[in-house]
Amino acid sequence: MLTTILDILIRMHNFITLKLLEIIIKYLIFIVYIIFFSLYVQMCSLRDNLKEFVSSLRDTEMKLDVCPSDRADMQEELKRALDVFQEKYEELARQMAWLISVVYSSVSLSNYSLRMVYK
After folding, report:
1. DSSP string computed for 26-67
2. What pLDDT shows up at residue 47?
3. What is the model's pLDDT at position 40?
């Protein structure tokens, strides 16, 4: 996308001053930077949430292991909490897999490597 916009701008070089072209390129690079930064922030947030849910899962499993067998109501509540944590953990794992596939896809990486060549 960025290369096609640059190609159009280069063809229109007679109509656009060099300074204006420089400003447009800076803004395009800035927009790309914002997009990648937002993906990075989202990935970090997901990673932190996954870590919290893993620790909550382990903590709940440990509580379930030490729960007295005569307290069926407590065991039932811990099992329900464990199911909720596992469901949320699976949802976050799916989101992380989607985000990784978007950021590290072959098309995304090839676009990034082309940008690195032009620098």
Report:
1. HHHHHHHHHHHHHHHHHHHHHHHHHHHHHHHHHHHHHHHHHS
2. 86
3. 81
